[in-house]
Amino acid sequence: RARLAELQSRIRPHFLFNTLNTAIALVRSDPARAEGVLEDLAELFRVALEDGVRGTVTLAEEIELARRYLAIEALRFGERLSVQWQLDPAADTARLPPLALQPLLENAVRHGVEPCEDGGTVRVRTRSTLGRAEIVIDNSLPAAGTRANPGHGVALANVRDRLRLLHDLDAQFESGPRGDATWRVRIVVPLGAVK
């Protein structure tokens, strides 16, 4: 539990300044939208600041936070960000560490959408199968010559380690390119209670 709380405390969304700048830009032109951005940001802050007080959340709660996060990013990127959802409600009860999906989605936007002039696509898919929940996040990648510097894998390692601490060997975490055009993160966790 102590290690899980330590890893949880390291998750501090890096997009906060961008979000505040988005809200500031909207204050005069679209105050209602600015208010919505700040409400979404407040919810993300609330979860980030809990520092592991809540040991787990449901996949449904994580998806709700993911939607809030991607709604904020959609304001920043406009038509350059395409988001596709394919969600299986039967997987909603799976337990995850808080803010397990947000850093993965942040990576998808930062490395897949932001460096590409035409933007890109982020796909989130969940499904229940054989007593397990599968979560797949795919993002398009810019052409090889236009890719930004690769990250250091800190968010990937953090999420992987927290999943393993929570579910031990029952958790699967895979990430990597699928051909030249897509990056995939795949998580599989049990649907039953946390051990």
Walk me through what this model shows.
Helix 1 packs antiparallel against helix 6 and helix 4 runs parallel beside helix 5. The chain contains six helices and seven strands. Strand 4 and strand 5 form a beta hairpin. It has 195 residues and is an alpha+beta fold. It starts with a helix and ends in a 5-residue tail after the last strand. The mean pLDDT is 84. Strands 2-4-5-7-6 form a five-stranded mixed sheet.
Mean pLDDT, to the nearest integer, reads 84
Treating each run of at least 4 consecutive H or I residues as one helix, how many helices?
Answer: 6
Strands, total number: 7
Q: How would a textbook summarize the main sheet?
A: 5 strands, mixed
Helix content: 40-55%
Give the amount of beta strand, in percent. Answer: 15-25%
Q: SSE order in H/E notation?
A: HHHEHEEHEEHEE
The radius of gyration over CA amounts to 17 Å
Summing up helix and strand content along with how strands pair, one would put the structural category as: alpha+beta
The end-to-end distance, rounded to whole angstroms, is 12 Å
Low-confidence spans: pLDDT under 50, at least 5 residues? Answer: none
Main sheet: strand order: 2-4-5-7-6
Tell me, what's the shape? globular
